[in-house]
Amino acid sequence: MAPVLEIKSLVKHFLFVTDGVILRKYKMLKAVDGVSFSVDKGACFGIAGESGSGKTTISRLILLLEKITSGKILYEGKDISKLARKDILWYRMRVQTIFQDAASSLNPRMRVRDIVSEPLEVQLGKTLTKKEIMERTEEMIRLVGLPTDKLANYPHELSGGQKQRVAIAKAVILHPALVILDEPVSALDVSIRAQILNLLSDIQAQQDLTYLIIAHDLAMLQHVTTDIGVMYLGKIVETGKTENVFNEPLHPYTKALFAAVPWPVPGRVKKAPSLKGEIGNPLDPPSGCRFHQRCEYAKRICREAEPLLVETRPGHSVACHKINEPLWRAS
Amino acid sequence: MSQTVKTEQDQPIGKTFSFMFVFKRYPIIPALCLLPVIICGIFGPLFYPHDPTMMNLGSALKPPAFLPGGEFSYFLGTDHMGRDLLSRLIEGARISLLISVFGVLLSGLIGCSLGMLAGYMGGKADEVIMRVVDAQMSIPAILLTILLAAALGVGVTTIIVAISVVFWTGYARVIRGETVSLKQREFVVLAKVTGCSKARILIRHIFPNLISTITVLATLQLGRAILIEASITFLGVGLQPPDTAWGLMISEGRMYMATAWWIPTFAGLAIMATVLGSNLMGDWLRDKFDPKLRQL
């Protein structure tokens, strides 16, 4: 199937002033450093990784909230950094997002009705009548499982789960093609998470949506995603079909991450050791493989050369010398 | 038989009367200070005891009614021209209210728009606007007003313009800061992602969240505006004698301080009460709007 979103060696560097008043010293923060992946239509692509690995920066780049340093983001084959003004408005209709904190995603001074209907007003206000907008808003609020009398409420009168439902209604009211979910449930009570995730997958099936989920909750990602990419310090270290990656994680970092998840399996013995140390400093990333300082298999080559993302088997790629070296020798 | 046990929680809150509770809940003192001024300002002409500008040299320098020699019909006494002080005080409230309200509105309009623009646009616009604010804030307010009043000629409009020019910087600073922090909030980012124009984001998303701040600022500025108006009128570059203003009453009564203390004193008290009331009202509003300080 044709990919909705293609990301090609995407790089985002932030310039930071580290020292000096007149003669300033800058340092480059490599938040995203050469990331490539593609999201197929109807898929649910998950991006996992620790905080500071660059997950959210990728979402901000896709949403045109930051300028790309280099690389390309293609939406349905079009380079989004080269869109004309009119096309940007169109793109903003096709790509929507839901943030982690529903409470601050909703304008405290607007009623639910105005919050949910705003995208319609902005994008289709000229073609739709007031009545049609209201009808579609009511339909949408019912779709996310809220009674229509909540439309007259202000956000602070709703519970956390209800707020996230309103945020979802606002995001999907334009029938977008791609929705970016940045930690959609991690701010919610555990009891409400499943409800919201089910609602999201119902809406996906109904409206033929593509999701890009950014999260650190691996159990959740395994449950809802079709493909997954694991990020470490601005790079994707392992990517592939969710079942492949979860059944047989190859990269030592992925293994360690999965080992840290408390799966409720009786008699399960922890196989991989948990991670040592902190995530490296993105202002001064380690040489070679960025994970080598925390990796128990690290050899000289890991310190010197950066491993490339290589497809080790269909639908499963990994960037690790230990895994890829034998493959190269064989070929 | 059921017996009701009285606990502390059973008592309805409204019945337990507490002065602190009432004072925190309702702006009683600020209202007591401000309401008379507002009523006099709007309905003054309906209940003047005398015409505030009518001179009657025969009854000049009469003391207030409660002093020996005072007459009840001139309740607060008369000035050196025999004009009734109470009527002049009521008429003065009109001018003070007019100037301060319009001055605060106009400065608020300029300051808030420029502040929002600087905060939201950032970059060059921000640099330029904020440097102008910094430069202007380094000039003493009273000096700037005097210069403007002298340059533009005397009159009510001049004072309103002068007050706006002096006060917009205060708004611009605070509003810029608030806008910068609102700009980072998720709902503003989401509005951008949805495709809202900059104008729509500023009007629909940022401005409604600034209203409480603007209200507090405006209330506090109201008192300062009255002070500035009175000060420049006192110094002789504000309103001129046929008009009636509190600052003018003080400057005219200054010469008679030793013999007829009541002429400047009551005008001074009126200014003090109004400024105090507006400051207290501003504080009360701030406590009410700011959730971090809200207790009740």
The total beta strand count of chain B reads 0
Category by helix and strand content of chain A: alpha/beta
CATH superfamily of chain A: P-loop containing nucleotide triphosphate hydrolases
| Largest sheet: number of strands, sense, barrel closure of chain B | none
CATH topology of chain A: Rossmann fold
Please tell me the total number of domains of chain A: 1
CATH class of chain A: Alpha Beta
Unreliable sequence segments of chain B: none
Radius of gyration of chain A: 22 Å
CATH architecture of chain B: Orthogonal Bundle
CATH architecture tag of chain A: 3-Layer(aba) Sandwich
Helix tally of chain A equals: 12
Q: Major sheet of chain A: order of its strands?
A: 6-7-8-3-9-10-12-11
Provide the helix percentage of chain B: 55-70%
Write the layout of secondary structure elements.
The complex is a heterodimer of chains A (331) and B (296).
Chain A: E1 3-19, E2 25-40, E3 44-48, H1 55-62, E4 70-75, E5 78-79, H2 85-94, E6 95-98, H3 102-105, H4 112-124, H5 130-143, H6 160-172, E7 178-182, H7 190-207, E8 210-214, H8 218-224, E9 227-232, E10 235-241, H9 242-247, H10 252-259, H11 300-304, E11 310-313, E12 316-318, H12 321-330
Helix pairs in contact in A: 4-5, 4-6, 5-6, 6-7
Chain B: H1 19-25, H2 28-43, H3 85-121, H4 123-137, H5 141-152, H6 156-183, H7 186-194, H8 198-206, H9 211-235, H10 246-253, H11 262-289
